[in-house]
Write a structure and sequence with these properties.
Oligomer: heterodimer
Number of helices of chain B: 19
Strand content of chain A: under 5%
Number of strands of chain B: 9
Helix content of chain A: over 70%
Structural class of chain A: mainly alpha
Number of helices of chain A: 14
Largest sheet of chain A: 2 strands, antiparallel
Distance between the termini of chain A: 38 Å
Chain lengths: 343, 440
């Protein structure tokens, strides 16, 4: 019996007088007994149980269709045409020209490279720091709620506000970072224009904003780890560090994978931080495009230069890259699970 | 575009919020207004609401002009929809114009976008010049908003005649003349003379100060006074052969390769801080920038700043008001746009906001705010800017001026100024960028 049948069954039993076994009722009424068709009420009810779930999810799919699917398909159309922002109704077929154009564009490869490097230097330290923070918070602490709220504060801050502050901290003329470096005898670094400096600066904004968020996810997962695992580990003489490596980390594996996937997607689409960090012409990502990410390149092409066809092609290339990333993740997960089973 | 907006975990919050908030709200507002007037209005007296779409501060509300107009026309109320960033404002206007809905009754157009509007969107705008007295405006201003077949799609709002704003106290410490007429004479005729004075400044520069805020500022100022920018008269892209670009580039390079620049990027928070800290002694300033300087340099700068005539008459910025054909109240919107851009109203806005009128007949009675005058050492602001305004040369503009200018200043010049590249390398980088912009 499917669950739906069970539901209907249960419902019809409620209508009958007590004392009659449910099975008898079902036999008499539900399966086309000669003495009478099901009452309109029960028919309505069945129809209701079948249709209602669809009715409930419909608004989402309608909205999804109108605001996501149609525009999404429209970008495919755009990406195959030569479309200017100033002349949306004059579209001429370009075939794969926009994509070919991208593949031969230094700016595209540069943006791809930047997206990757910024992604790595922001995601890796961020997740490691989050893991460590969560581990610390997992112990009994005085005012643990306060600590947790504090950790989530950066996440709640708007990108604009955070980036503005960071841009000031990193300003090469009188910014606090250079001022501190000065004490250690390091020459002022032009954080926005130097290649590594700017990428580092952008990553710190990302790290600052997302570490707490990830730490809370880890913390939640850690608290689901049975305490007796730790107790037995302690009985075996494992210290906290050993407990972390041999109990916490293995138990956390699915969660870590989840955060890696989410962070990777976020990193691929990094946009707000570098845009605002760049100031007035932020979509260029610095004078040598040294921190222009794919998101910025797409924005620059679409809304600043007004070449919507090419921008759409970038959007789809990003989508493709994300699919590849997702596939790699899937394979990795499978592989991990298999190696778990072999233990 | 939207792929990223959907997925990036809220990092586009700001842009999305700006687009949504101003966009949707504006859209909703005008829709509901239209609805009510189409139905004859709930109150039956035909009261209509006109919406004015602007970017940044136009000063109409600040100068009380909307209230004044409503008093003159009790059946009209006015709502202003402001989008702060032009790079957000213009794409939005473009898409709405082409969709034929969601535009405001009056849309402001920045000078950097006017040629694109004239060349690609003219059919979507009312010919607002048809029965306006065009002689009120500076000829070149009206010409910028006029199509080849003579339709004028926007009325001139303000212009940006240029002067040099400088710190008297710092000039004095560096042993330069501080008198504004003497200075103006010294650099008259050529921006390179203004740069030359910078070498003299740097010899005895007060500690921690530079002569000028940025090389781009010099580029921009010099370019705004040339007769040729990035396009020739026939609309062909000639930026790499243009004399205007070359002179401006050379002047900017002599700044970028020297130590006289504070190496700031204009309109960055650090640039703002530079005013407050007094880290540079001068900059090219169009009239509308006076208010900005006053705000950022703060009270401590009062009376220390002065204004001298620029080496050449030059223009930076300015805008137009146009009425989209999508407006449901075209007649009323045109009337309001004409009133807002009339000389009397432009003078009122100047008094409040220092946006300089594009209507010469307003110049005689111009009075800046007493505060502003005092802030800039009682310099004869009206005189200086009017003189400049009257002699600004007409300059052919093109649809991609804005991205080309950005590529030269924020890629080419910045690489030389901040990354120590050679001028040739900077030029090369800018060329590459412009090729990308033009899709070559």
């Amino acid at each position: 019996m499917t669950s739906k049948e069970a539901l209907a069954h249960h419902a019809s039993s409620a209508e009958t007088a007590p004392g009659i076994p449910p099975g008898a009722v079902r036999g008499a009424r539900g399966r086309g007994a000669p003495d009478g068709a099901p009452s309109w009420r029960s028919r309505l009810y069945r129809w209701d149980t079948k249709a209602s779930p669809y009715a409930f999810v419909t608004p989402f799919f309608v909205l999804f269709g109108v605001f996501t699917l149609v525009p999404l398909l429209y970008t495919v159309w755009y990406s195959l045409h030569d479309v200017q922002l100033s002349a949306l109704d004059h579209q001429s077929w370009a075939g794969l020209d926009n994509y070919r154009n991208l593949l031969s564009s230094d700016f595209f490869w540069n943006a791809l490279r930047n997206t990757f490097t910024i992604g790595v230097i922001s995601t890796v330290p961020q997740l490691m720091a989050a893991l460590w923070l969560a581990h610390m918070l997992n112990y009994r602490l005085r005012g643990s709620t306060v600590w947790r709220v504090v950790m989530l504060t950066p996440y709640a801050t708007s990108v604009a506000a955070a980036t503005l502050v960071f841009a000031l901290l990193y300003s090469w003329d009188g910014g606090m970072v250079n001022w501190i470096l000065h004490f250690f005898g390091v020459d002022a670094i032009n954080w926005r224009e130097s290649d590594w400096g700017s990428q580092f600066a952008v990553s710190t904004i990302v790290i600052w904003r997302w570490t707490g968020y990830n730490a809370l996810i880890y913390l939640a997962a850690m608290q689901a780890i049975p305490a007796d695992l730790y107790e037995s580990a302690a009985l075996d003489g494992a210290n906290r560090r050993q407990q972390f490596w041999h109990v916490t980390i293995p138990q956390l594996r699915p969660t870590v994978l989840f955060t890696i996937v989410v962070s990777t997607i976020g990193a691929t689409q990094l946009f707000g931080e570098p845009l605002l960090f760049g100031g007035v012409s932020g979509s260029k990502g610095g004078s040598e495009h040294q921190y222009q990410t794919l998101g910025l390149y797409m924005y620059d092409q679409g809304w600043i230069i007004g070449n919507l066809g090419k921008a759409s092609a970038i959007a789809w290339s990003m989508f493709l890259i994300l699919l590849i990333v997702a596939a790699v993740n899937l394979l990795l997960t499978r592989w991990l699970r298999r190696s778990d089973d072999h233990r | 575009m939207r792929t990223s907006i959907r997925r990036s975990r809220g990092t586009v919050a700001m842009v999305a919020a700006a687009a949504l908030a101003t966009g949707l709200l504006a859209g909703c507002a005008s829709d509901s207004d239209d609805g009510s007037s189409d139905a004859g209005g709930g109150d039956g007296n035909g009261k209509i609401t006109l919406t004015v779409g602007t970017f940044g501060v136009f000063g109409y509300k600040q100068a009380g002009l909307y209230d004044e107009y409503t008093k003159l026309h009790p059946d009209i109320s006015i709502k202003e929809n402001v989008t702060t960033r032009t790079d957000v404002y213009w794409p939005k206007v473009l898409t709405r114009l082409q969709a034929g809905s969601g535009t405001d009754d009056i849309q402001a157009i920045e000078v950097g976008n006017i040629t694109e509007a004239v060349q690609t969107q003219a059919a979507k705008f009312v010919d607002i010049g048809k029965d306006a007295d065009k002689s009120q405006w500076l000829d070149w201003k009206t010409a910028q908003a006029t199509t080849a077949d003579g339709r004028t799609i926007g009325l001139g709002v303000d212009i940006g005649p240029m002067a040099i704003c400088y710190r008297k106290d710092l000039f004095e410490k560096a042993g330069l003349p501080t008198d504004r007429t003497k200075l103006a004479e010294q650099w008259k005729g050529d921006w390179s003379k203004y740069v030359d004075l910078g070498k003299q400044y740097m010899k005895k520069a007060p500690k921690g100060t530079k002569y000028v805020d940025s090389a781009s500022s010099v580029y921009n100022a010099s370019l705004g006074g040339s007769t040729e920018r990035n396009y020739d008269k026939d609309g062909k892209v000639v930026w790499d052969k243009s004399k205007g670009v070359k002179d401006a580039w050379d002047a900017a390079m002599s700044v970028a390769t020297s130590d006289m620049s504070a190496k700031l990027k204009q309109f960055d928070p650090t640039w703002d801080k530079g005013f407050a800290n007094g880290s540079f002694a001068s900059l090219a300033c169009p009239a509308w920038m006076l208010g900005y300087i006053g705000e950022k340099a703060g009270d401590s700068g009062k009376g220390k700043w002065d204004v001298a005539a620029a080496p050449t008459a030059s223009n930076w910025g300015g805008s137009f008001l146009g009425v989209p054909t999508a407006s449901k109240h075209q007649k009323e919107a045109v009337a309001l746009a004409k009133w807002l851009t009339a000389p009397e109203q432009q003078a009122k806005v100047f008094a409040k906001q220092a946006s300089f009128p594009s209507t010469p007949s307003a110049y005689a009675g111009l009075k800046p705010q007493a505060d502003t005058t005092a802030y800039f050492s009682n310099a004869p602001l009206t005189q200086i800017f009017s003189d400049s305004a009257k002699t600004i040369p007409a300059q052919p503009l093109g649809p991609k001026d804005k991205p080309i200018d950005t590529a030269i200043s924020d890629i080419g010049i910045l690489q030389v100024e901040q990354k120590g590249k050679t001028p040739a390398q900077g030029w090369e980088a800018a060329s590459k960028e412009i090729k990308d912009v033009l899709g070559q």
